Each structure stands twice: as structure tokens, then as C-alpha cells.
Amino acid sequence: MSTSAPLPSSPYVAPTDELLLALDVAGLDQLLTLESFAHVDRDTVASVISEFAKLAADVIAPSDRVSDVVGAHYDASTRRVTTPPEFHKAYARYVDGEWGSLPVEMAHGGGGFPSVVTAALQEMFATANISLALNPVLTQGAIEALLQWGTEEQRALYLAKLMTGAWSGTMNLTEPQAGSDLGEIHTMATPRPDGTWAITGTKIFITWGEHDLTDNIIHLVLARTPDAAPGTKGLSLFLVPKVLVNPDGSLGEPNALYAQSIEHKMGIHGSPTCVMQFENATGFLIGPLHAGMKGMFTMMNAARLAIGIQGPAIAERAYQHAYDYAVTREQGRAPGASTTSPIIAHPDVQRMLLLMSTTTIAARCLIFTATANKDRAIHSDGADHERAQQLVDLLTPVAKAWSTDRGVEAASLGIQIFGGMGFIEETGIAQRWRDARIAPIYEGTNGIQAIDLVFRKIPRDNGQWVQELATEIRETLARATEGTLTDDATYVRHALEHLEDTTSWMIDAVSSHGDDALAGATGYLELFGNVVAGWLMIKRALRARELGLADVARYEQESHFFAVEVVTKCGGLVTMIMAGAARLGALRLPA
Ligand SMILES: Cc1cc2nc3c(=O)[nH]c(=O)nc-3n(C[C@H](O)[C@H](O)[C@H](O)COP(=O)(O)OP(=O)(O)OC[C@H]3O[C@@H](n4cnc5c(N)ncnc54)[C@H](O)[C@@H]3O)c2cc1C
Question: Are 126 and 315 in contact (CB under 8 A)?
Fold first, then answer.
């Protein structure tokens, strides 16, 4: 990273109409009929989105290039991390607006909005500056963990400050020997006579583990208590503040913890990724002893959807940047042109731009659909609750992995559209790819998401929830009876049949020949994502027509492009998945 003055960030215009339409596709209207959201209507949601869009475009987005070129800095003598002044300005505006409290229930002093509305804001924040956006993502996870597992006293002490963003939260899972396998966590929590715990250990890769934006940082730490069972069953969750908080809420003594260093990374330079040392730090148990994974899963599931959003978020910025370049850069003659054409006129450049824009839209609809089900699961009961809970569980790994993989692809296409200039840092498009590349890795790698989908999610009730989803998809397809949507429905119907066949095959493989299921899990997740995305693109086109949106043909054309370009690939995926572990065969490398 150079310290020379950075060039301006590429402009960002938040796609507010698209965000609202994606919320519609996800079922915003039905959500707002629930009692918990009686005080929210569509107009309020629209004005919240448009208000945040201004903040994102005018205040946050200009800090994005500084994030890449200057980034966060660590001072070994003080063990402090500093962030650029532009971050302070943008973050202060976020705190002043109390945006963080929007999804928290009104009983706890929040705005009581559906979290899917927050997902729209999270997308805009991440498109504007992904590094800075990570800070509130983790804080939001800490809030959810406290709401679900904290005591009254803990909520009273920490919640309000976390909600406004006056304090931030972190998630401390990873250790040098414990990445995907959290059962290897060594950090110890030893009980003290006063009921607190002494936390000792080293955590690595902790996002925003230390920084200068807030005067306290609330770490949620997974640790092992003495005599606990080995593996994940022996883990408990602890709240470990950077600065201890007095009973009246004022700040007390610094806790015995610090950042030992920050990582030098290929992207998200503005997000400090810290090695954290806990040296007999004072911790407070959150939730029951040895139920740490449950508490952490509350955070992780929230964070998985929020990280999924980074896919369309980065893709959107890359698309806007690449589009601006493609209309100004002239090269060659497009078919039928008599003079030099802007590169956007070339069919292959059109293809790349459309692939970027349609996968962005589809990924957005997918994540919002998963998040709307989460809202429904929390705010309804009985059969409605059960159905929504199963669907969000099923869709979360797909939303996280499919969307972040598409984000990397879109960022790469953005570079391709810039040609040689895409490889030159001056244009700023390379930042998109470097920033996007982490999303398939953190919050559980995409490979681990695929294994979760195949081994934990689809076998539930013998595949019943995939069938429930398939029924819902078929209901939409039955309504797609006009124009190109009819063809799109045919493509998605075929792909859905492939998904049903491979699901049965997978469930069988999980119980009888797990190797095959493991070898095909990533392909299966891609197939699953393609089908759901194709469905949502059709649903979006139908919704645009119901709403009487101008230029309704555009939504249908986008659905058609996506169905032809992406959904039709599902057949090839089936062949690959069902080839099982045998296709690794003799090529299998020695362990
Ligand atoms: C920038 C950044 C920020 C991060 N922020 C945080 C944070 O805030 N808090 C936190 O706790 N952690 C954080 N992490 C850690 C992150 O979640 C882990 O890096 C991630 O979970 C993968 O763990 P690992 O790096 O040890 O990779 P490994 O677990 O070593 O995996 C390496 C490869 O092997 C594969 N693999 C591993 N196990 C299996 C298996 N059983 N089956 C099939 N494939 C497998 C993986 O998919 C991957 O491709 C962050 C990491 C980075 C780089």
C-alpha cells in the first residue's frame, strides 16, 4: 500500500428502485402484515432506503479508495489501530443517524423494522465501502447474540451503545489451529469466585478487533472451560469488553486484552484484521455453559447473510464502474457500425455487463428472500414459524456461497471490461476483485457452506423442505405464461427437476457413501443457487408487471438472459455431481 494521495473513488448511485423491487420479490408486503411490523409500511421502507442511499453515495462511497490505498494502520508501541479520517466522518454520520438500531425490536429501544430492510441498507453500505461496512455487520451480530442469549443485566449494560454504534462488536472464533474446525479452539475460560471468567488465549483474523472509531469494543469470544468436553461441545461464549463497563454504564478500567498486530491483506485494507491476545481478561458468560456454539451460531447466521450481501454489493459497484468505462472507451467497430464504436456496442462486452447486472439482481433477491424468511420465523408462530425457519436454514448456506462466488465473478468481469486498464491500479477496478475475494472465505468457506447444505440442511425431514421450496417455485412458474417468461419457466422447470433428482441422490449418498456427497457438494450448491436465482428472476419480472412498473419488458429480458445464460448450465452440473468421488479416482492426491 502506498501512502500517496489516493485518486477519487468511483462514483456510486444506489439502485433504490431495484432494492425496493427485490424486497417485494422477497415478500415485503406479506411481512408487513405481521403484527410486529404494524407500524411500518412500504412508503416508510422506501423513504428509509432513499435516506440511507444518500448517506451511502455522498458520505460513505467517497471513503472507499482511501480504504484501499491508505487502509488501517497498527502502531506496535501503543498497540493501537488507526483508520483514515474519512472513516471517522462516515462512521460518525452512521452513528448519528442511529441506523444500527433500525432492526432491533421496539421493546429494546430499536426501530422494529424487518431485518430484510436492514439487508438493503447493508448492501448499500458494503457497495459504498465494504471495509467500513464490516464494522456494523459484526456489531449487528453481537446485538442479536445479546438479545437471544444475554441476561437482562447484560442487555442493559451493552445493548444501547451497540445499537447506536457508539460501541462496536466483534466475533472471536478463529485461532491458528482452529479455522474451519472450531472444535480445535484452545482459548481458556477459567471461573473466578466473583462469577466472572478469566479469558486467556490467542485469536487470529479478528475483523475490527481493535480500532479508533469507538471508545469501546465488545468482543464475543468462544472459549473452553476447564474439564469441558473436547470438540465444539466443550465451548462456551463470553462477552469480553475492551474497556470494562461500570454498573452505571460508564467506562472503567481497560481489560487485559490487546491487538498484537494486524494482517497485510490482498483486499479490504480499511478493515483491520487483528491478532488478539487475551491475557486473563475479564469475561462474562453469555447463554448457558457449554452452549457456546448455539450462541455463536446466532451471530454466524446473521453474519452469513450479511457476508452474502457482499457479493451483490461489490458486483453492483463493479458493474457501475465497468458500465461507465464501456460507454466511453472506443475500440473496433461493432456489427453494422461504420465508425469506431464504444466497446459497450460489442456483443461480448454486452454479455459481460448483462451477466454482471443480472447475477447482481438475482443474488440480491436470493439473500433478501432468505432474510425475509428469517424475519417471518422470528415474528410468527406455529406452522408459519416452522416453514419460515426451515427455509431460512436451507437458504442461508446457498445465499452466502452462491452470492459471494457470483460477486467474485462479477468483479473479475469488471476488470475484463476495462481490458489492460483493468490490470492497472489507477482505474480502481482491481480493488473490487481484491475486496470481493475474501467473501467466499470468511464466515465459513464456501466449501464448508456446501457441506452444511448437503449434510445438515437438505436431509432434514428426508428432503421435505427442498420439496416445499420446489412447490413454491412451481407455483410461480405456473404464472409465467406470457412472452419469453414462458421459455424461462421451461428452463427453470427442467433445472428444478435436476435439482430434485440430485437432492434424492445426495440424501442417499449422505447416508451410504458420504465421499460422493462431499465430492459433489459444491456443484450441488451451485445447482441449487442457479435454480433459486432463475426462479426469483421470473418472480421479479412478474412482480414488476403487477406493480405496473415502467419498461416492464426490461425485467422480462433480464429474466430471459439469466435463464439462458445461467440456468441452462444446470444439466452439466448434474453430470458432474453424480460422477461422485469416482471422478477424483486415480487422480486423488496423496494425503
Ligand atoms: C480478512 C479476514 C477476516 C476474518 N474475520 C474473522 C472474524 O472476524 N472472526 C473470526 O473468528 N474469524 C475471522 N476470519 C477467519 C475465517 O473465518 C477463516 O479464515 C475461515 O473460516 C477459514 O478458516 P482457515 O483460514 O483456517 O482455513 P482452513 O480451515 O484451513 O481451510 C482451508 C481450505 O480447506 C477447506 N477445508 C477445511 N476443512 C474442510 C473440510 N472439513 N471439508 C472440506 N474442505 C475443508 C476450506 O474450505 C478451505 O478451502 C477472517 C479471515 C480473514 C482472512
Answer: no
The DSSP annotation for 549-574 comes to: -TTHHHHHHHHHHHHHHTGGGHHHHH
3-state secondary structure 351-368: HHHHHHHHHHHHHHHHHH
Separation of alpha carbons 346 and 398, rounded Å: 33
For ligand 1, which residues put their CB under 6 angstroms from it? 171-174, 179-180, 205-207, 265, 273, 438, 441-445, 447-448, 451
Distance CA 161, CA 156 (A): 10
Q: What is the pLDDT of residue 6?
A: 52
In this structure, the number of other CB atoms found within 10 A of the CB of residue 132 comes to: 26
pLDDT on residue 297: 84
Q: Which of 175, 409, 443, 556 is catalytic?
A: 443
The cell numbers describing 216, all together, are 469501546
In the Cβ-directed half-sphere of 398, how many Cα atoms lie within 13 Å? 32
Q: Which three cell numbers stand for residue 545?
A: 408487471
Q: In this structure, what C-alpha cell is assigned to residue 350? A: 454486452
Cβ-Cβ contacts under 8 Å for 75 (sequence gap 6 or more): 81, 82
pLDDT for res 2: 43
Percentage of the chain with pLDDT > 90? Answer: 94
Residues 117 and 48: beta-carbon distance below 8 Å: yes
**Diameter over CA atoms, the chain:** 85
| Cα distances (angstroms) measured from residue 70 to each of 46, 110, 438 | 35, 35, 19
Q: What value does the mean pLDDT of the chain take?
A: 95
Q: For residues 267 and 304, what is the distance between their CA atoms, to the nearest angstrom? A: 19
Name the residue at shortest CA distance from atom 2 of ligand 1: 205
Is residue 540 within 8 Å of residue 364, measured between CB atoms? no
